[in-house]
Specification:
The chain is α+β, with helices and mostly antiparallel strands. It contains 3 helices and 6 strands, in the order ααββαββββ. The chain has a single domain, classed as Nuclear Transport Factor 2, Chain: A (Roll), CATH 3.10.450.
């Protein structure tokens, strides 16, 4: 693995940690190139999928703050090749509002892959692909009951 690939992996992990820490979008934007493009494939929250530029990422992040109370990412696998990083994660979030069968305060879980293309140490492209399971495509959620966490 090259030094650049190692640095890109480190930056990708720092990005996930920054999301967990709920830093402001102004700070989070430091991970992106000005011409960043995110491709989010259909999931529980964005049923038609989305393609976002920096401004649309900012708007989506603001909407997400009203839906998700807290979230964490468990990195299951990560690899880097050239300007690309691929990460397989389990995402666990506490929802602020009911989502399907999950009540406000309940936990939601999903497995998905994130594919990041770097330019000069920042994200040029983000692709998020959820793990399709037997119930169909999209973040497959599990109601894990009420959470005792309150933030």
């Amino acid at each position: 693995m090259t030094t650049t690939e190692s640095e890109n992996l480190k930056i990708a992990r720092l990005y996930l940690q920054a999301i967990e820490d709920r830093i402001s979008f102004h700070e989070l934007a430091s991970f992106f190139t000005p011409d960043v493009v995110q491709h989010e494939y259909p999931n529980q929250f964005v049923r038609q999928g989305a393609e976002r530029n920096l401004q649309h990422l900012r708007e989506a992040a603001e909407r997400g703050r009203h839906v998700i109370t807290s979230q964490r990412y468990e990195v299951r696998n990560a690899l880097a090749h050239g300007d690309w990083v691929a990460i397989e994660v389990t995402w666990i979030a506490v929802v602020a509002v009911p989502v399907g069968a999950i009540p406000a305060g309940g936990e939601m879980r999903a497995n998905f892959g994130v594919f990041l293309q770097f330019r000069d140490g920042k994200f040029l492209t983000l692709e998020e692909q959820d793990n399709p399971q037997s119930a169909g495509i999209g973040k497959q959620t599990q109601a894990l009951g009420q959470s005792d966490r309150h933030e």
